[in-house]
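Progress note, project year one: complex with zinc ion.
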Amino acid sequence: MQLAPQSRHPIMNQLILHPRNMHAAINEASILDTLRDLGLIDQSFDYQGKTHYQPGDAFLERMIFLGCSPVIALGEPGLTGEDFCHVSLIPSAAEPRFWHGKNIKAPRCPHCRKPQTDWQTLITQWQTRQHDYRHRCAECDKETTIDELKWRQSAGFLRSGIIVWGIYEGEAVPSEGLMDALQACSGEKWTYFYLQS
Ligand SMILES: [Zn+2]
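Model obtained:
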């Protein structure tokens, strides 16, 4: 199975933003300009040999934290540990990949809502059939593409996207303004999920 690359660190909590269309690639330069204009990101820095971005002035306006007093680590790597909030891009892969962490949940049928507990088989079939695969629900007998299943924000299919590091599952959601700006920049509707590894 092709999975998201594993970090060297034992715990990682991320929010992944990506185009709904799993085949869409992003223009990295224009996405970065958009994120800078929005104040989501600031200066770049080197993180494990890759270019990542410090949170910008408006990070807490673009990411809406849902708890009453969230513990948010903003700042320098090394000062606030590995789970500090910052941003990086997922460069466009040649093909869509299935991304999930240990917080994966059985997807639900979009028609009848029944959990599809055989999801690992579905993923294998999707991968072996070169991604040309429709799933038929055993409960309601309706067909869906694999990305139309309701993965409950615990997995995604993508070639490229944005990683917001240091966000725990369900802790924060992207603002409407951020999602609208990403759509305006890329011409694609965007969605998100949480990845814990
Ligand atoms: Zn169904």
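The radius of gyration is 17 Å.
The longest strand covers residues 13-19.
No further modelling is planned for this target in the current period.
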